[in-house]
Specification:
Structural class: alpha/beta
CATH architecture: Alpha-Beta Complex
Strand order of the largest sheet: 2-1-3-4-5-6-7
Number of domains: 1
Shape: globular
Order of helices and strands: EHEHEHEEEEHH
Bound molecules: inosine 5'-triphosphate
Helix content: 25-40%
Strand content: 15-25%
Oligomer: single chain
Number of helices: 5
């Protein structure tokens, strides 16, 4: 089976990706499993640019097909923040309970209609001999009034889906993958990789 490296240091992303691509006949290996320990500077100005930076850096090191995900939370009332800085918001090592509490407090007194937000995921596939392809997926919701749910990771406990009456941290992993930004972006990029592999049966 073909090996594809997933260029991320975030084990939650690896877990979700393995669920989303469970029926895709490729072996997804993490950077750690591939023995790659690279420091990647995410200095792009969009999710897409950062996803391409990560995928191409690891492609250059490994010579393999490489997938990368750059994602985050855009809160409309905060002008789209934390956006591409979602991992770095209030400091990379700050617990998400603190980051989530801060977002809730910045929205104190703001009504539901102005609490709109979205998760964005740009998924990039870099190839040894072809141009990199990037696809975006999003999911719309509102910022909740308190954390709820134990599943997922990061900002999931405050990302409330009005039509479901719960946060993405209260969905099962399968339910989240079926509707999430990451699920949408990775299912789109799966088509791109499948097409590449069909044209490169020996790769
Ligand atoms: P890599 O760059 O190594 O992949 P990272 O965690 O630094 O890992 P990003 O730069 O893409 O990843 O930052 C994304 C952040 O956005 C992530 O750390 C979460 O805080 C948040 N995020 C992304 N997807 C999310 C999701 O599905 N649920 C909750 N929070 C999410």
């Amino acid at each position: 089976m073909k090996n594809i490296i997933f260029a991320t240091g975030n084990l939650n992303k690896v877990r979700e990706l393995r669920g989303i691509l469970a029926d895709f006949p490729v072996e997804i290996i993490s950077m750690k499993e591939a023995g790659i320990d690279a420091d990647i500077v995410e200095d792009g100005s969009t999710f897409e640019e950062n996803a391409v930076i990560k995928a191409e850096k690891i492609r250059d090191i490994s010579g393999c097909i490489v997938l990368a995900d750059d994602s985050g939370l855009e809160v409309d009332y905060l002008g789209g923040a934390p956006g591409i800085y979602s991992a770095r918001f209030l400091g990379e090592k700050t617990p998400y309970s603190v980051k989530n509490a801060e977002i809730i407090s910045r929205l104190q007194g703001v009504p539901d209609s102005s609490r709109t937000a979205r998760f964005v995921c740009a998924a990039a596939a870099a190839f040894p001999d072809e141009a990199t392809v990037v696809r975006r997926g999003t999911i719309e919701g509102i910022i909740g009034y308190k954390e709820a749910g134990e599943n997922g990771f990061g900002y999931d406990p405050i990302f409330f889906l009005p039509e479901r009456g719960m946060t993405t941290a209260q969905l099962s992993p399968e339910e989240k993958n079926a509707i999430s930004h990451r699920g949408k972006a990775l299912r789109a990029i799966r088509e791109v990789i499948a097409d590449y592999l069909e044209r490169h049966p020996q790769s």
